[in-house]
């Protein structure tokens, strides 16, 4: 499937999911999905204790990275005309998103300090999560 079609499909799925929840705006549904993805990402990062566990986590990290990238693109596709909805959605989940962003930074700092972790393994990790925004 072509990347443009994937983005369009992801945006359609986000909007379709939001339409099924009458009490959520599309921005709120997207933001909630983003928070869930960041929580899962941090759960996987928490399992990294050494180079072997990092290698084992890479496929899950890459998959979550892709899902987060599509989520961010879908958020952008919702358009600026609903900027107030976006601000409200971010405000609603602000503390949770900040906590997940902080945990993400803590995990990366901890992993960088793992004794015996090769520079190549660290490069693989950083490449696997290259599209994850450091803060949102």
| Low-pLDDT runs | none
Strand content: under 5%
Overall 3D geometry?
elongated
Number of helices: 6
What summary fits the major beta sheet? none
Structural class: mainly alpha
- Could you tell me the radius of gyration in angstroms? 16 Å
Helix and strand element order: HHHHHH
Kindly state the percentage of residues in helix.
over 70%
Overall pLDDT confidence? 86
Number of strands: 0
* End-to-end separation: 29 Å
Give the gist of this structure.
The protein contains six helices and no strands. The protein has 136 residues and is mostly helical.
Description:
This protein has 6 helices and no strands. The chain is mainly alpha-helical and 136 residues long. Helix 1 crosses helix 3. The longest helix has 27 residues, at 51-77. The protein is elongated.
